[in-house]
Amino acid sequence: MATIRQVDSCDSRRAAGGRRLLWRPDAATLNAAIPFFYIGRNRYGFWVAREAEGKVGGLFMRQRSALRFARKFSEPLGCATMLLNEPFELDVENQGSRVTVALTSAVEIAVRRLPTVATFVGLMVAEWRKLVAEVSHAVAGERRNRAAIERDLFHGHYRLSSKNDDDLPIQ
């Protein structure tokens, strides 16, 4: 596979209506005989692999799967790939993961028809992450306290085997 480089919006052109057109680098940059694929994320965060001439393309859960798809469709010679920074959509028939297509459809329905539910789920996920962080912080604090008690009482020679601090010897 050829070198991968990041591309931003200045490397793309816009059609009427603001739709971005992907274009293949000129022959001085990349030989026309070498297959060329764009790899990037769509607006929902799934990976898109699309051949520059629009012959094949697919949606994937992981970037690695998108790169594997590009290699598979350019065998045995290999291909050049370009990672895009901006989201772009697959505009050819999907030949990638069927599961990703189903998930994309579900996300589209949720975003379009149930924005309050999607917002609620997003808030719940954020709150869950905060809770997990707080619990992790509390558990780490408990471990630090136990280690400090062991250092103070036993000078590093022994470890407490009790799970209850009430069983500590009183000095």
Structure description:
By secondary structure, the protein is α/β, with parallel strands linked by helices. The protein has two domains: 108 residues, no CATH class; 49 residues. It has three helices and seven strands. A five-stranded mixed sheet has the order 1-7-4-5-6. It has a two-stranded antiparallel ribbon with strand order 2-3. Strand 4 and strand 5 form a beta hairpin. The N terminus is likely disordered.
- How helix-rich are the residues, as a percent range? 25-40%
Integer average pLDDT: 78
- The parts where pLDDT drops under 50 for at least 5 residues are 1-20
Strand content: 15-25%
Total domains: 2
What profile does the largest beta sheet have? Answer: 5 strands, mixed
Radius of gyration: 26 Å
- The total count of helices amounts to 3
Q: Globular, elongated, flat, extended or rod-shaped: what is the shape?
A: elongated
Structural class: alpha/beta
Number of strands: 7
> Span from first to last CA?
70 Å
Strand order within the widest beta sheet = 1-7-4-5-6
Question: Mind sketching the topology for me?
Answer:
Blueprint: E1 6-7, E2 13-14, E3 20-21, E4 36-41, E5 47-51, E6 57-60, H1 63-73, E7 80-84, H2 98-113, H3 115-154
Parallel strand pairs: 1-7, 4-7
Antiparallel strand pairs: 2-3, 4-5, 5-6
